[in-house]
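User: Show me sequence and structure for the first protein, then do the same for the second.

Assistant: Starting with the first protein.
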Amino acid sequence: MNFDDPRTRCDHTTAWQRLRAHYESAGRSFDLRAAFAQDAQRFERFSQDAPHVFADLSKNLIDAPTEALLLQLARECGVVAYRDAMFEGRPINNTEQRAVMHWLLRKPAPGHTGQAQAAIDTVAPEIASALHDVHATLEDMLALAERVRADDGITDIVNIGIGGSDLGPAMVVKALDDLRHPGKRLHFISNVDGMELGSLLRQLRPESTLFLIASKTFTTAETMSNAQAARAWFLDQGGSEDARARLPLARHFYALTTNLEAAAQFGITTTLGFWDWVGGRYSLWSAIGLPIAIAVGAPHFRALLAGAHAMDEHFRTAPLESNLPVRLALLDLWYRNFHDFSSRSMAPYSHGLRRLPAYLQQLEMESNGKGVDAHGQPLPYATSAVVWGEPGTNGQHAFFQMIHQGPDTVPVEFIALREPGRDLPDQHPRLVANALAQARALMMGRPEEADGHRRFSGNRPSTFLVLERLDPASLGALIALYEHRVFTSGALWGINSFDQWGVELGKGIAKDLEPRLATGDVQGLDPSSAGLLRRLAA
């Protein structure tokens, strides 16, 4: 498949030059407190509803002229055409010649949509064929999940993966813990450090444990090292490769992979696969989501998909002016490339979302942490910010000191729920009050304080996202919102957001170094690596 990239790189546009001049004349000195004093409608102007998510952007360092220039930039960069190319199944991942169609994983099956959507289903026969395969696999996965849920003999499910095969499912399972099957405990193993898997195995019984080996190729080094260790433990505990035995390996190990031959050699007969057009960090909607489906059940998994699809449709159809992923991405560019803010802190005021910052680290920094454009040319500007954070009140007593009074401005993204979770609902107002207070304190500060130790400069930006509740549909929409935001940022910067060659170099070097730890061979190594290897060798 050939793909003629419709984008113009952001620094090659007229809008980019106009934004540079605007920043120098007005953006650099922008004051939020003055902006609110001058515009009684500022909250309404810079807030909006999107599917399952309300966003208040009013505490950001923007005004109407700034946003107008940013929207002009999006148009000149060809964001709309690039977005449409993704939804048409074009190979926008140009370095790997692959389409990018994680959105198809949550698209309803034909016959379950309205007339307008049904018409879209018929546009591209190859997409219709892929959608049929998606739903066939989805039905198989959900049926398998329900069998596991109904199996009282299985109490512990251990997902062994890394990267997208771990972060997404782990984040969602923890977020939806209120809906988790009471008889099933979900565990996620990713670190090749034996302490992680070893400490878990000491708590498990082989007869009541199911291992899910999540590796598309069934060759991922870290995942397969842990998988082999789990297999050895299982066999040492009385398990058998014989399917007729009391404790057969095939009953206690499933594979989420496309490498059926390698899985069979491992002793696995139950497998689910997915497609090349599903990137690892976008894969929780696929068979990689099996632990999610086991935890919450088929109806809730479908609701997760439905929430994401609603956000997909918002991103695909909403005008740029009211397109929430686009507006957030434009803010990211404004802060990264004009204000020179190098990081963004995530502050979810929800214990359920405690793994969201880690998930977003991969989603954003692996996608957009690139120094060349899609044609391999060096970029003269920064791309992905450093994404980091913790659940809200924990962060208040850790790094919020720096955010309030440190020399660097760090935009903060607050996430709050209108409704409490299942447990101790009386504490919810205190949680929400803390989120609101921190956002207000960052903006207002206390600049008039004479004591420098107690002075707060204020004028520190934040975004505030509100979900009605933490349920599957809202969570699905929230994740899709971030996916499309990352897509749009990458489109503006002119990069390929869907490869990750930076992951590969270190992995290749590790394969060379591992046997050297046993032999002590340092030939060809730099002095530092040689010295460390001697220090760490067995």
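Switching to the second protein now.
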Amino acid sequence: MDNQRLILFILFTFSVFFLMEAWQKEKQPAPLTPSAATAPAAGPASTPVPSPLRSQPAAPVAAPPAVGGALQNGETVRVETDVFIADIDTAGGDLRRLELREHRDTLDQSKNFVLLQQADHTYIAQAGLIGTNMPNHRTSYVASEREIKLAPGAEKISVRLIAPPAGGVKVTKVYTFQRGSYVIDVGYEIENQGGVAVQPDAYFQLIRDGRSPDGDSAMMPTYTGMAVYSDKEKFQKVAFTDVDKGKVGYLKKSNDGWIAFLQHYFLSAWLPANGAPREFYTRVDNGLYAAGVILSLGSIEPGARGALTVPLYAGPQEQDQLAKLAPGLDLTVDYGWLTVIAKPLFWFLQWLYHWVGNWGVAIILLTVTIKALFYPLSATSYRSMARMRVLAPRLQKLKEQYGDDRQRMNQAMMELYKTEKINPLGGCLPIVVQIPVFIALYWVLLASVELRHAPFMLGIDDLSMSPIGDHFVLAPVVYFVLPVLMGATMIFQTHLNPEPPDPVQAKIMKIMPIAFSIMFFWFPVGLVLYWLINNILSIAQQWQITRSMERSSKPAHGK
């Protein structure tokens, strides 16, 4: 396979990939923005509370809680830590807004990134108890403070929400925030002051509409949806379309695992401790999707106390941190079937970054390393192309000799290849071997939140930014430099390759670099940087090998 065929193959592969991703996104429901206006505490629009865990059959899962109708609004409790600005609503005790102070907004870098919200679209965290007289996400809580800040030197702060006493049971919902952590502990403290034992279950759920995050590219779509993990079934995506159709195949009951919502660079996940029976559920209700887990608090006798806490992770997909929090949580940075290749590539890229302190320079060094490792294979491919280039004049003579008689021309070409001991497909295998590495690195550079708003040089201060975004939103002019240089290298590289004998194929090969380079204007500049450096190194290798082959062939074919 010569370099032109490689270009065609890569273009075809990426085109099919993008089309499939776009088709999947098209199949998702249209985004909804439910009203956040105040609604009564009860009524037909209120959503059901799930049945107790003990009474639920193995399948299907009992009706889980979801948001139906408008969210209730109460008083807001604002919590500020070194990494969060969080708004908790006393109506349901929901976490309604979560601002990440160490990450900038996708479209406006002067603002902090907002992960959970109910303004532009709905994405919130809810929790409640199941049982008679037990508070749930429709209960109005009472908070003693309206604004809580993490004091200098303090390691954590807590928000305590008191539910109205009912049936002799006192319930307190507790949020605990820790310094430097994206984990929020959400728990319940139950004091049974009545005369009979109670057996409450607790549910913890995330509510989200089907809208793609701001800045999500139609040219390079990424996964937005649910995910479930268990030791038995491992990591499983649950797409919005699967929930719409009721075709979900994850393990619903387990003694371990977690459930999450994923989007490009960020996630939120409920992380119950392993060893406790739990039931996962997903549901769609009026365009809003619920993903949650149900756990039992056991029996609480009169005069006794019970408690349950489940950590909520809400933050960036930083693989090192995710791997420490829960088994399989680092898999939310999804590299697909190439994970076995992509993870070592990311590890090495990260190691290079810690060494040089610049992600762009780390990408360059990684590319150089990969090219060096594959040099023997690349050299084989380039030698094959060089031999074909040396034979080009003789192939042209065969074309002139046989004219339109393709059969005799092909026979003559095969005889020439046999005489010169040349395999026209001699460079195919080396290229094919390298393609999985190239695709894996593509996913590494696309999925790594570490590259988000990471500066490079020469005014490029965000390696995740595309020169042309959706709706033709243009980045600063400097971001166009790398795609233009990439296109120039591709055009130059075509002149190093033998021209195909077929005129139509020759025209395609001249047009293809231009068409392919245009696609790079929609690629993040971190990816373009990788391809540019890879192309420059390929040109240098090919130039050296081609010149060497041509010099060695002059005595034999000088005349």
